[in-house]
Write a structure and sequence with these properties.
The chain has 227 residues and is an alpha+beta fold. The chain has three domains: 22-87, Sandwich (Immunoglobulin-like); 90-191; 196-225. Helices cover 51% and strands 28% of the residues. The chain has three helices and ten strands; from the N terminus they run αβββββββααβββ. Strands 3-2-5-6 form a four-stranded antiparallel β-sheet, with no helix packed on it. Strands 4-1-7 form a three-stranded mixed β-sheet. A hairpin with a 4-residue loop joins strand 9 and strand 10 (218-225). Helix 2 (89-145) runs antiparallel to helix 3 (151-191). The longest helix has 57 residues, at 89-145.
Length: 227
């Protein structure tokens, strides 16, 4: 009798195992993804165990569209399932708005600042070079008038003076225009609002948000819980 009971227990154990199937999930396009089988949220793992047969599967990841499909295991005890997630239209729009925001911020704040900074650095060197080349030009002109140096030397000195002179005026103009643009566009730059993207996890009460931090010039992730 005991032997018969032992055999019944022994053969009853694999029955439940034979009725289930191990599924290995391969998800492309998402980071941390959530899986729901037949309306029940699964542990966050790429290996899940389900009963054999047909199941409704839903997969979601932040920034992606909700994926829905049928999971067919058949009579297999182990199978693989591949899913490819697609970015949501709202997230694609957020990326486009972020690019526009970066361009506006660059032309309103970064570009004038760079022009002013570079011009201020170059201006002292251009001023000294202009003075030195002007002295060389005066000397070369004097010597050329007395046939002590050839015309080619005078022309070379004149070309060098013109180059440094142009750099001087360019640096001076860059300092004035860049500085004026920076202060005139400063109120406009302050009014620029960085875009944000907010999406609710369809399986939980969480809201996830992504926004552009203009201080660190990179995206910033946030999480909100609803109770």
């Amino acid at each position: 009798m005991k032997y018969l009971v032992f055999l019944l227990i022994l053969f009853s154990l694999p029955i439940s195992a034979q009725d289930s199937s191990k599924v290995r999930l391969f998800v492309k396009g998402g980071e941390d993804y959530f899986v729901r089988i037949d309306g029940k949220l699964q542990p966050q793992s790429n290996i899940i165990t389900v009963s054999k047969g047909s199941h409704d599967i839903e997969i979601w990841s932040f920034k992606q569209r909700l994926y829905k499909d049928k999971l067919e295991t058949g009579n297999l005890e182990s199978t693989n399932y591949f899913a490819e997630l697609r970015p949501s239209s709202e997230y694609v729009g957020y990326l486009q708005e972020t690019d526009q925001y970066k361009r506006k911020l660059f032309f309103a704040k970064t570009a004038p600042f760079l022009i002013t900074s570079v011009s201020l650095v170059a201006l002292p060197f251009a001023t000294m070079g202009r003075i030195n080349k002007h002295e060389e030009l005066v000397q070369s002109t004097f010597l050329n008038d007395r046939n002590q140096i050839p015309d080619e030397t005078l022309e070379n000195t004149q070309l060098q003076y013109n180059t440094v002179n142009a750099l001087f005026f360019l640096s001076a103009a860059g300092t004035l225009i860049g500085g004026a643009s920076f202060f005139l566009l400063k109120p406009y730059a302050r009014k620029l609002t960085p875009p944000s993207f907010k999406q609710q996890n369809p399986f939980t009460l969480e809201y996830m948000q992504l926004s552009y931090n203009r201080g660190i010039k990179s995206p910033e992730f946030g999480l909100t819980l609803n109770f």
